[in-house]
Amino acid sequence: MEPVTTQYSIKVVKYFILAALVWAIAGMTIGVILAAQLYWPSLNFDSQYFQFGRLRPLHTSGVIYGFVVNILMGTSLYIAQRTGRCEIFNKSLSWMVFWGWQLVLLLALISLPAGYTTSKEYAELEWPIDLLIVLVWVLYAVLFFGTIAKRKVGHIFVANWFFAAFIIVIAMIFIVNNLAIPVSAMKSYSVFAGAQDAIVQWWWGHNAVGFLLTAGVIGMNYYFIPKAAERPIYSYRLSVIHFWGLVGFYTWAGTHHLIYSSVPVWVQNIGIVMSLILWLPSWAGAFNSAMTLLQNKEKLKSDYILLFFFSAILYYCLATFEGPLLAIRWFNMVAHNTEWVIGHVHSGALGWVAMSGIAVFYYFIPRLWNKTELWSQRLIKWHFWLAHAGVAIYAIALWVAGIGEGYMWLAQNDNGELVYSFIEAMDFKAPWLFLRFFGGALFVLGLLLMAVNLYKTVRMPAVFVAKEA
Fold first, then answer.
1. Cα–Cα 20 to 30 A to 269, which of 29, 109, 344, 449?
2. Which residues form the Cytochrome oxidase subunit I profile domain (predicted)?
């Protein structure tokens, strides 16, 4: 029985979750603006601050560092306390982490549209902000691992293993990839160059996906899916196998982004082989989560929170199928650097990460505010279908555009001359880029409905005390 003296720190968790919700809407709204700019270039307004190149890193940083990191920080600190039946390591430190991270995001919001960028994918922020990120991340690590050390139970729940991996690996690869020589207050140059820089960059870039958008979200889901389904994890042993499979193979897969490049062929081959191996632990973990939900089939039929979780699992399967597929040389030759890759990224980012986050928002926020139910079941139903229509339209449009674009780039006459010009390839994919914008707009409309629903929910009078999350 849980000791009555345990005082969980819930307030800072609320702040993290609300920040995540705000950044999810803001970051994805910027994404819709970018999609509109690709179809209607005049929407750049001839402004150096509002053009695609300046806003695009703000979109990726807002979603990854704003939405995802905030929700992972909040849920990890909550789960570490609950599963360890202990108080947080240090309350003051938890607020330092929260406000420190919001300062990072504020500086990104100011510096990126102003043009201060390293130009590295998912690592665009300049060196002073990088130093602040490292400082806050170290404080977060101390807070999380300190809370784990304080636990009053011997066992460390599997979700915390995934959170630990996400904290350690992100720290390691972020620091190495961002090693730079400052030349002014807001300008630096990487210590790496050429092929070496590319290898280090995609070691970071792919594992930012692997450990922020995958391992961290898996850890979150391994706690909330059993809670929402009111059933235990289908196979705890399989969850541990899933953990070691991801940790063992994911960090090697990044060089599949460098096939047909000047990096050594054996380095490319490692990326290909490890990508193919990753298929096994990824689908094993997806099977485990799906079977956890299917243990409560009656609730799954009508509970849209469970359906969001189930959809996230299916999109996780799709994304982890596409990754190995894109690593195979013949398919990489056609699809890499085309719109297909954008569709792949967003089927994972919207289908897997965002739908997992949406399910957690719907399940967790009412319980944090001691509410027994959502304000409107009709709105969550509308959100469910808007989100699914949005992801499907977005991804399918870009898959079609990408394959067509890839074949047009490769088509040659008998004399080796290209059959299609660059403009003809752009004309071909234009209508599909409009569908991309339309799908993204539907997805963001669903997020706005969620925000209204959750706001109304927390404003409802607390007649009954909800079950703990």
1. 344
2. 1-469
Residue 177 lies in a domain: no
Same domain, 59 and 206: no
155 labelled ligand-binding? no
- Using one digit for the tens of pLDDT, what is the confidence trace for 311-360? 999 999 999 999 999 999 999 999 999 999 999 999 999 999 999 999 99
383 is in an annotated binding site: no
The pairs formed by 461-467 with CB atoms below 8 angstroms and a separation of 24 or more are 462/369, 462/370, 462/371, 463/372, 464/372, 465/370, 465/372, 466/366, 466/367, 466/370, 466/371, 466/372, 467/367
Q: Which domain CATH number covers 300?
A: 1.20.210.10
- Is residue 63 within 8 A of residue 464, CB to CB? The reply is no
DSSP assignment of 162-194, as one string? HHHHHHHHHHHHHHHHT-EEEEETTEEEES--H
Same domain, 425 and 300: yes
Cα separation, 19 vs 97, whole angstroms: 13
In a domain, 186, yes or no: no
Domain boundary pick from 119, 154, 169: 169
User: Is 59 marked as binding a ligand?
Assistant: yes
Each residue's pLDDT tens digit, 213-256:
999 999 999 999 999 999 999 999 999 999 999 999 999 999 99
Domain that holds residue 216: 192-469
pLDDT tens-digit profile of 272-290? 999 999 999 999 999 999 9
